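Hi, here's the filled form for the chain we discussed.

Project: internal
Contact: R.S.
Residues: 181
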Amino acid sequence: MTIQKTDTSVVDIVKELIVHHYSNGDGHDVTKTKILKQLFFAQSFSLYYFNYELFFEETEAWQYGPVVSTVYTNWESPSSLLNHTSIRNTDIFAKTIIEIIFEVTKSFKATELTDISHDIGSAWDHNYIEHDRKIISKTDIKEYFPVHTIITQALGAYFLEYKKYDLDSIDSSIKEMSFLC
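And the returned structure, exactly as it came back:
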């Protein structure tokens, strides 16, 4: 099955994540590393459960985990990306995915998320080559998402506890969006 494409930029996704951090009193905990790992898990979740890319930029396998180079190179501080020119507003699907991943990962330290992204058998593990920055295909990101058992278990607990989101209703919103494009 072909992965559904988006025109949403990673910068728009980062802005949403940063806003979540600050609005939840976690602004002190916003680091480049934490955001990069949250982006990876958000993209993974979106691809695995909905076959829909959250942002169009590629993710690369760097020494310290999956990285979207656009975010890495433009990050001076959280506010530097908040002030970055936006392509468009983030749609409801992306906002929902970001909210879920934020809630599931907010209690993890950046170093813990890095360790999780390095799980044996993960997309990063399958693509990392020392001293190289190989692109991790979206197919690999999708295929190897279940390897991250800590994240998938936390997602399961989140859905059971809050029952806030129904995966079928999120999937329906994607189908509605695809008719608009």
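Let me know if anything looks off before we file it.
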